[in-house]
């Protein structure tokens, strides 16, 4: 079976400041191999997202050896990440440990661009003291990513307590009417806390890219 043509967007970084990430869900091992070979040929580094374990194991030994893979987030680095920019300017909060895959995708994306992130997990509102005991630390960060499923109440609470830019990351965690994250998404969009940004369900990559754009907006002109 032939591998369909692959046409990477090599100039995206120049246009928007964020390089193309390779979304691996739905791609065959053959297609991923072609993408990696093309990147190697032009000396490019790549961030791969939604790379499942089965896809990883279907790759050749050489391709697997070239990837720094994180199973929880299903992300991989092809080549070295950007140099670290120093102390964290972003904090990632998760309501519960079930939200960690999306939160880790955000953390790995930030790391790819050289942005370290502080992390506070399992700070959901069902045990509000877990959030309030860390509140002074959390308030130090100019950008916050809040990952939450179920009723996603954590976003509104955080949005009403901090001055920084707050990005809602709804997750597909929850029973029944949580509807695979749709309830969390709707709750975040309907939040009464003003000035919040919200990305799509489980889109840790998108949350991190939003944070990166915000951080660059703070930067002094070149």
Summary?
The protein is built from 10 helices and 9 strands.
Explained architecture:
- This protein is 36% helix and 17% strand.
- The radius of gyration is 18 Å and the shape is globular.
- The longest helix has 15 residues, at 204-218.
- The chain has helices spanning 12-16, 29-41, 53-58, 61-65, 100-112, 129-132, 135-138, 153-159, 182-189, 204-218; strands at residues 22-23, 46-49, 67-70, 75-78, 90-94, 117-120, 143-148, 165-170, 197-198.
- α5 (100-112) packs across α10 (204-218).
- The protein has a five-stranded parallel sheet, with helices on both faces. The protein has a four-stranded mixed sheet with strand order 1-2-4-3.
- It has ten helices and nine strands.
- β1 (22-23), α2 and β2 (46-49) form a beta-alpha-beta unit.
- With 222 residues, the chain is of the alpha/beta class.
- It folds into two domains: 12-78; 90-218, Rossmann fold.
Descriptive labels:
222 residues, alpha/beta, Rossmann fold, 2 domains, 5-stranded parallel sheet, 4-stranded mixed sheet, 10 helices, 9 strands, 17% strand, globular
Number of helices: 10
Distance between the termini: 49 Å
The CATH topology of the largest domain, please? Answer: Rossmann fold
DSSP strand tally = 9
Strand order of the largest sheet: 6-5-7-8-9
Strand content: 15-25%
Question: Tell me, what is the CATH class of the largest domain?
Answer: Alpha Beta
CATH architecture of the largest domain: 3-Layer(aba) Sandwich
How many discrete structural domains? Answer: 2
Poorly predicted residue ranges: none
The share of residues in helices is 25-40%
Order of helices and strands: HEHEHHEEEHEHHEHEHEH
Summarize the main sheet. 5 strands, parallel
Averaging pLDDT over every residue, what do you get? 92
Rg (CA only):
18 Å
- Secondary-structure-derived class: alpha/beta
- Coarse morphology: globular
């Amino acid at each position: 079976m032939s591998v369909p043509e692959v046409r990477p967007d090599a100039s995206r970084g120049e246009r928007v400041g964020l390089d193309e990430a390779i979304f691996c869900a739905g791609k065959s091992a053959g297609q991923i191999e072609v993408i990696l070979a093309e990147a190697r040929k032009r000396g490019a580094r790549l961030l791969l997202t939604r790379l499942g374990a089965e896809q990883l194991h279907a790759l050749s030994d050489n391709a697997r050896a070239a990837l720094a893979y994180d199973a929880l987030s299903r992300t991989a680095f092809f080549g070295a990440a950007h140099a670290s920019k120093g102390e964290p300017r972003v904090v990632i909060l998760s309501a519960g440990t079930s939200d960690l895959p999306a939160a880790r995708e955000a953390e790995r994306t930030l790391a790819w661009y050289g942005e370290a992130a502080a992390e506070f997990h399992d700070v959901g509102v069902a045990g509000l003291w877990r959030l309030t005991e860390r509140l002074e630390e959390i308030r130090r960060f100019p950008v916050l990513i809040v990952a939450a499923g179920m009723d996603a109440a954590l976003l509104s609470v955080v949005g009403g307590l901090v001055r920084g830019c707050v990005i809602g990351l709804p997750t597909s965690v929850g029973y029944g009417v949580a509807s695979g994250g749709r309830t969390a998404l709707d709750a975040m969009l309907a939040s009464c806390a003003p000035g919040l940004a919200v990305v799509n369900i489980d889109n840790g990559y998108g949350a991190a890219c939003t944070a990166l754009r915000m951080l660059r907006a703070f930067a002094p002109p070149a």
